[in-house]
Automatic annotation (TrEMBL):
It is an enzyme of class 2 (transferase). One of its GO terms (cellular component) is endoplasmic reticulum membrane. PANTHER family: GPI MANNOSYLTRANSFERASE 1, PIG-M MANNOSYLTRANSFERASE. GO terms for molecular function: alpha-1,4-mannosyltransferase activity; GPI mannosyltransferase activity. Pathway: Glycolipid biosynthesis; glycosylphosphatidylinositol-anchor biosynthesis. Its EC number is 2.4.1.-. It is a multi-pass membrane protein. Keywords: Endoplasmic reticulum, Glycosyltransferase, GPI-anchor biosynthesis, Membrane, Transferase, Transmembrane, Transmembrane helix. It comes from Patellaria atrata CBS 101060. This is GPI mannosyltransferase 1. Mannosyltransferase involved in glycosylphosphatidylinositol-anchor biosynthesis. Transfers the first alpha-1,4-mannose to GlcN-acyl-PI during GPI precursor assembly. Required for cell wall integrity. The chain crosses the membrane at residues 20-38, 50-75, 87-104, 116-140.
Length: 158
């Protein structure tokens, strides 16, 4: 929203805070996640990277969600989202709710021309972001735990 508001010709801000929005995205998707997880499980790490990139992107459009769908077959079979159906259904329900809430507010703004920034779009954006961060945490935790359990199995065989 800050990027959208500051794009106005009457915006007088000399310090453009929105130009720093890439730092968490770059830090997570290009450094922290790959360095911490890539040696444990590369395809699932690529899902976490892509999910983080989309979640922390300062521009959000629905087609970005397609970017990480290609990695789901590598992740889902051993994920806690499938092994714990209550968790999986909660995550799916919250993700769908968050996206529908966000899209509805975007529709109000872009197609109907209504000023939906506050509280609608702001609340929807924060809600959807927090849901995505929570799901990203589940994905990262699953990658770490699956590699730890694989190490435990190898130790037991030795």
């Amino acid at each position: 929203m800050l990027l959208y508001i500051n794009s106005s010709p009457i915006s007088r801000s000399s310090f453009h805070l929105e130009s720093l929005a890439f730092i968490p995205q770059l830090g997570l998707s290009a450094a922290l996640i790959p360095l911490a997880l890539a040696k444990k499980d590369l395809p699932r790490t690529m899902l976490a990277q892509t999910f983080a990139f989309v979640t922390f992107n300062k521009v959000c459009t629905s087609q970005y969600f397609l970017w990480y769908l290609v990695f789901l077959p590598f992740y889902l079979p051993s994920s806690s989202l499938l092994h714990q159906p209550k968790l999986g259904l909660t995550a799916l329900g919250l993700w769908i709710f968050g996206q529908v809430f966000w899209l509805q507010q975007g529709y109000q703004l872009e197609f109907l021309g209504k000023s939906a920034f506050v509280p609608g779009l702001w609340t929807a954006s924060i809600t959807f972001f927090l849901v995505n961060v929570w799901i990203l945490g589940i994905i990262i935790n699953d990658i770490g735990e699956s590699s730890d359990s694989a190490l435990d199995r190898k130790k037991k065989k030795s």
